[in-house]
Amino acid sequence: MLIVVRMPPRYRDPASRASRSRITCITLRLAALGQSERDHAACVLSLSYNDPCRATWRSYDPCVTEYRPPIQDIVFALQHVVGYDRLAALPQFEHADLETVAGMLEECGEFMAKVVAPINRDGDLVGSVRNPDGTVTTPESYRAAYAKLVESGWGSVQFPEEFDGGGFPWTIGLAIHELLQTASLAFALGPLLTHGAIDALLHYGSDEQKALYLPRMVSGQWTGTMNLTEPQAGTDVGALTTRAVPNGDGSYAITGQKIFITYGDHDLTENIVHLVLARTPGAPEGTRGISCFIVPKFVPDADGEPGERNAVSCLALEHKLGIHGSPTAVLSYEGATGYLIGEENLGMRIMFVMMNSARVSVGMQGLAVGTRAYQQALEYAGQRVQGEPIGPSGDATISGHPDVRRMLMTQRAYTLALRRLLLLNAVHIDLAQHAEDDAERERSAEIAALLTPISKSWGTDLGVELASLGIQIHGGMGYIEETGAAQHWRDSRITPIYEGTNGVQAADLVGRKLPVRDGASFLEFIASMREDLPALQAAGGEFAAVGASVGASIDLLERTTGWMLRTGGGGDAASVLAGSSAYLELWGHVLGGWLLARSALAASGLGDAAEAADQLATARFFASHLLPKSAALAAQATGGAADVFGIPLARL
Ligand SMILES: Cc1cc2nc3c(=O)[nH]c(=O)nc-3n(C[C@H](O)[C@H](O)[C@H](O)COP(=O)(O)OP(=O)(O)OC[C@H]3O[C@@H](n4cnc5c(N)ncnc54)[C@H](O)[C@@H]3O)c2cc1C
Question: CA 451, CA 505: separation in Å to the nearest integer?
């Protein structure tokens, strides 16, 4: 809660009666707040009071800006844009029809807005702390909200019923994750990592491991972590040195230090299930010699209850730019008891299962933080008056200034485009696993593989950009911490770094995904995007204009893909990699333009004139203001490596 007090001149003398009565009134309001909020507001109050430039007084409550879950748009995207009907038609998802899903999301959105969104600020201000005895304490509000989250069951919807999940498609789990992450990104990281660990165990765990760990992790009673990083082994996971020595009883003794471990220790649950990458004696060098182990914080006893404390301790929590509520731990394993998952040296394969779903979920963090920043900026722009806007809207507030409106539309168009991309990615992840036809499963696996690095990278880069625009729309107040606009940007900045940096995602796109079937996988997808163009053309007018822009950008993407294939095939890997980030961003823009055009066309036939007009205006804006970046990105993507390396390091 922030109360900005702008004192009229007659109140500036603290000794005057008018001033005293005003202060009394403010004090009464402050009394209604909690202690930390009071301290916070009082601090701003004193600053405001001493500032002679402030001439009016008003209260502004941005930190508790309500989160408005965009359920209507999520359901619209599922129904009309990303083909959710293909999933709902599968026999195992009979119960997950769109009507049921829409009702669930409505209820879930309400829960996230009421229970989770209000703790987002607290997580930033209070943060998680490591105590002198080595334990870790999360903010009190986190503990209360986490207990309610577990009770609500919203974290378990997409997991198999045999492990007490809801048996819904992963796509619906991702939609729920949007709501959770938008409510509070730092808080949602615990469930996000837990879900990745569950995926790894579902694929590679033994029956005993599944029976012991999965029901407790699915319910949220225990959380999971992902332990890859060591000081010398970041992107280069193969450089890790943590050792795993057989104990002779089937278990292993794990010794080593892991850094940057998200939710590595905390007080939200009675146990934590660490998934740890380590090397067994005599294992091959590099990534081929890595194995994956379950290392519980408390070793389960014969009844599966948390038993003996394992030899893993939290040495420190990192001091970070953002996500202060999320405890990022340095963990020391000193002969801790670990249990092998799968076979020795399968570690990277297991981690990839965990990372692939986590990558789309991290891409979702970009959408989440972008949405929260947009909602807050929109609210501010509708209140703040500065000058007389010159523009057709007639708004008296800054939202009427064309440049502010451009920023708001940019936030809206990118968030809508991202939501569609992420849900499309999720539908293909589900189809790759559940479609009845082999060929359909294989093709969806290829499409999911193509889209995943784009979802992660484009999603998180946009999250940072949209949060930055949120600050810009607030003007100076955005740079002042108390408004909360800066928190979104600080929180978002890690997302392009973890879960494989965005540079590594771009390298994955051109190095591993593009060569699939000598490029045919990419070219077939590009051809499939063209299938919507005749309908846009036939709709005429503005639809045809949007279709023409999208068509031109698809042509550009195809030509750039051809260049990538020729250049890579010619052995110039450095040039392909030098252009890889721009190529990925080009993909993002073309996908975004295409999906919004498809939305506009779908909305035009639904009988809701206002919604149809909004969807068309969003597609038009994307086509006219954002899609033109494609030409620059294509040029950048094909610029080659020579100029990138044009100056020796010593002279850079
Ligand atoms: C808040 C936070 C939470 C985290 N949570 C976890 C967690 O839960 N579990 C976990 O295991 N780790 C976690 N990490 C670690 C995170 O995944 C790594 O920081 C990330 O993988 C990058 O590794 P690095 O920091 O060593 O950077 P480096 O690998 O040193 O990279 C530095 C730069 O070089 C570039 N680069 C490096 N190699 C290549 C390459 N081959 N091609 C192109 N560019 C390259 C990178 O893109 C980057 O720009 C977390 C980190 C933070 C800060």
Answer: 11
Residue among 235, 361, 649 whose CB has most ligand 1 atoms within 8 A, to mutate? 235
Residue 232 has pLDDT above 60, yes or no: yes
User: What pLDDT is stored for residue 44 in this prediction?
Assistant: 44
pLDDT beyond 60 at 375: yes
User: Whole-angstrom Cα distance, residue 293 to residue 269?
Assistant: 20
Both 51 and 91 in one domain: the answer is no
Q: Sorting pLDDT into bands at 50, 70 and 90, what band is 57?
A: very low
Please, are residues 442 and 99 in contact by the beta-carbon 8 Å criterion? no
Q: Are residues 80 and 49 in the same domain?
A: no
Q: Which residue has the CA at smallest separation from atom 37 of ligand 1?
A: 235
pLDDT, residue 2, reads 39
Q: Exactly one of 37, 344, 465, 499 is catalytic; name it.
A: 499
Kindly list the protein residues whose Cβ atom lies closer than 6 A to any atom of ligand 1. Answer: 193, 226-229, 234-235, 260-262, 320, 328, 494, 497-498, 501, 503-504, 507
Interval 575-617: pLDDT, tens: 999 999 999 999 999 999 999 999 999 999 999 999 999 999 9
C-alpha–C-alpha distance, residues 264 and 291, integer Å = 19
Q: Is 308 a catalytic residue?
A: no
Q: Do 39 and 155 fall within a single domain?
A: no
For residues 55 and 78, membership in a common domain is answered with no
CA of 237 to the centre of ligand 1 (A): 9
pLDDT of residue 514 exceeding 70: yes
- Closest ligand 1 atom to 263 CA: 8
Is residue 416 assigned to a domain?
no
From ligand 1's centre to the CA of 240, what distance in Å? Answer: 13
Ligand 1: distance of its center to the CA of 379 in Å? 35
Q: How many other CB atoms sit within 10 Å of the CB of residue 651? A: 6
Q: In total, how many domains does the chain have?
A: 3
Residue for token digits 């953002």? 322
Name the residue range of residue 506's domain. 501-640
The residue nearest atom 29 of ligand 1, judged by CA position, is 235
pTM above 0.70, yes or no: yes
> Which three-class secondary structure state does DSSP give residue 500?
coil
**106 and 219 inside one domain:** yes
For ligand 1, atom 4, the nearest C-alpha belongs to 260
Cα separation, 383 vs 397, whole angstroms: 6
Per-residue pLDDT reduced to its tens digit, 250-295:
999 999 999 999 999 999 999 999 999 999 999 999 999 999 999 9
The pair phi, psi for residue 647, each rounded to 5°, is -125, 130
- Decide if pLDDT at 402 tops 60: yes
Q: Under the phi-then-psi rule, with left for phi > 0, alpha for psi from -120 to 50, and beta for the rest, what region is 648?
A: beta
Task: Tokens for 188, please give them.
Answer: 């949602």
328: CATH: 2.40.110.20
